[in-house]
Design a protein that fits this description.
By secondary structure, the chain is α+β, with helices and mostly antiparallel strands. The chain has 2 domains: 467 residues, Glycosyltransferase (Alpha/alpha barrel), CATH 1.50.10; 58 residues, no CATH class. The chain is built from 17 helices and 18 strands. The longest helix has 22 residues.
Length: 547
């Protein structure tokens, strides 16, 4: 009882201490702010990490209920006559164990459950939360909703903050993906439930969209990052030196990634508007306008890629990074541009490394195995895969997604850890670095990727459920749409989704032949389907509304 009464007081006090001035948080000087943040990072990333063993993968209900999770996690079992497949079962379970470990119950920081990306990152991060919500989606939608809406709750005026932690509130924003995450969470569900969840958040999300147009839009209608740290990819060669001793002025650069994210945000707001019986056209018009500007202004015809472009000089920043292909996710590429982009996406010298989607193209002269200068990050790899899917390239998406999942699950089985980023060419951490030469980062976070990062690395499970099994909802009904690549032929995938009261079995007979068995509490149905062919789980009903 005393805890309930004192928490609101402590939250208010902490919020007052975090309240920013124009350049710093509340009562703290910039120096004090850095000290608090550094102590937090050092304590958790260096001292405690050395004492932590691997997180157990078992999650009995009595443990789940400690964080108000009322349903067991999804389970995967893979079997096959040829090859080692046990790492898929192990890795799939491991994702959910670490995901649960990083879930935080309401406390002084927030009255809403929220997620840490990893033990070292003890705050609420904007784009991390958007992706983490997508991992929770088929386990527990209530948690998924909390993980995204808490970012809205902790906003500063109309701005969604880059990060909020106990004594730190950022003056920046981050990739604006919360609306995308929430729309993706509720799209396809019954209108009444979706509207109930989205109505309280819609005004704040619209205000944030307007804030970006007022504060991050250039004269040419495209968008810029206030600082490289706002982008989430801060030491990418398009922005800085490897050790961050030199930063480029990003306020003059029209950014392909931010502009693409704003397209996604407008499309998400249009989806919400339809659910809420509002007019979606203003958001769709903004999205279409921005798609056109990306297509016309940021395309380098000679290189066949999208680049940052200086609005004063017209100069392109010809750095072949993952941002160069993210406009696919936003549907901004024209037909001819798509063909050129695919040359890079599917080339081993570009983005089709053994572990696909390196953050910098393999043959780029600035490629190195240092954070955003070459290693694979699952969040932007996920975005690139969504881009391929948007253009109907499902087979290519499935093949690349399969290699991504297989590698990360295999690494987990060997090391019992998930990591922030991965070597695109080899298994292991030996060649990876974190901003080599940056002593501050070495002191606060170490020189290697952070462990127990679920975090967006857990999106591999989302790929299993949504890409390979093809589980999704439309107009309140559930469907499967299997899209297994050739590497899955001869294997059987048994997927249990307790939150859906559903068991799915897939026997991959060939590249275009999958035997599907669907079990619910009331039926057992078997079907033989081709690649990408849809099979209904729920029968048609008058209760299913068209959104």
């Amino acid at each position: 009882m005393w805890r309930r009464s004192i928490l609101p007081f402590l939250r208010n006090a902490e919020s007052f201490l975090r309240r920013r001035t124009r350049h710093v948080t509340g009562l703290a000087t910039r120096f004090n702010r850095l000290v608090f943040f550094a102590l937090d990072l050092v304590l958790w990333s260096r001292v405690f990490r050395s004492q932590r063993g691997p997180i157990p993968v078992e999650l009995p209900l009595r443990v789940l209920k400690r964080k108000q999770v009322e349903v067991e996690a999804p389970v995967l079992h893979v079997s096959g006559l040829h090859g080692d497949v046990a790492h898929w079962d192990d890795g799939f379970a491991g994702v959910y164990a670490v995901l649960f470990e990083n879930l935080q119950v309401p406390d002084v920081l927030s009255p809403i459950r929220y997620a840490h990306p990893a033990p070292a990152f003890r705050g609420v991060y904007l784009w991390d939360s958007a992706f983490i919500s997508q991992i929770w989606k088929t386990w527990d939608r209530d948690v998924a909703h909390d993980v995204s809406r808490v970012v809205v709750h902790l906003r500063d005026g109309d701005r969604l903050q880059h990060v909020v932690s106990d004594l730190v509130a950022s003056v920046y924003t981050q990739p604006p993906l919360i609306a995308w995450s929430l729309a993706r969470l509720w799209e396809g569900h019954g209108r009444e439930e979706a509207a109930l969840r989205l109505e309280p958040l819609f005004p704040a999300l619209c205000a944030y969209n307007d804030w970006l147009y007022a504060n991050r839009r250039l004269a040419n209608g495209l968008f810029f990052w206030r600082h490289p740290y706002e982008s989430g990819v801060e030491n990418a060669p398009r922005f800085s030196s490897r050790d961050e001793s030199v930063f480029r002025d990003t306020t003059k650069l029209a950014a392909p990634d931010l502009s693409a994210y704003v397209v996604l945000q407008n499309e998400a707001l249009a989806t919400m508007a339809r659910i809420l019986h509002r007019d979606p056209e203003p958001f769709l018009a903004r999205a279409a306008d921005l798609q056109g500007r990306i297509r016309e202004e940021l395309w380098h015809a000679g290189d066949g890629l999208f680049y940052d472009r200086n609005i004063d000089t017209g100069e392109f920043i010809r750095s072949r990074t993952i941002a160069s292909i993210l406009p696919l996710w936003a549907g901004a590429a024209g037909e001819g541009q798509l063909r050129r982009l695919l040359e890079h996406v599917l080339s081993p010298e570009g983005f089709n490394s053994p572990l696909p989607f390196p953050s910098v193209a393999i043959s780029d002269p600035d490629f190195s195995l240092d954070m955003w200068r070459g290693p694979v990050w699952v969040n932007v790899a996920f975005g690139a895969l969504q881009g391929l899917k948007r253009y109907g390239l499902e087979r290519e998406a499935s093949e690349m997604a399969y290699r991504l999942c297989d590698h990360i699950y295999r690494m987990f089985r060997r090391e019992r850890r998930f990591y922030e980023f991965y070597d695109p060419e080899e298994a292991g951490l030996a060649r990876l670095y974190r901003k080599k030469g940056n002593r501050w980062k070495a002191f606060t976070l170490g020189v290697k990727p952070q462990a127990d990062f679920v975090g967006w690395t857990g999106l591999v499970n989302t790929l299993v459920i949504e890409q390979f099994a093809g589980f999704h909802r439309e107009n309140g009904r559930r469907f499967v749409q299997p899209r297994f690549p050739p590497a899955a032929v001869g294997k059987a995938y048994a997927l249990r989704l307790p939150g859906q009261n559903l068991a799915l079995d897939f026997c991959v007979l060939g590249p275009d032949s999958v035997r599907v068995t669907i079990r619910t509490p009331t039926q057992c149905v078997e079907a033989l389907v081709a690649f990408g062919e849809r099979a209904a789980i729920d029968p048609p009903s008058s209760n299913h509304e068209i959104l």
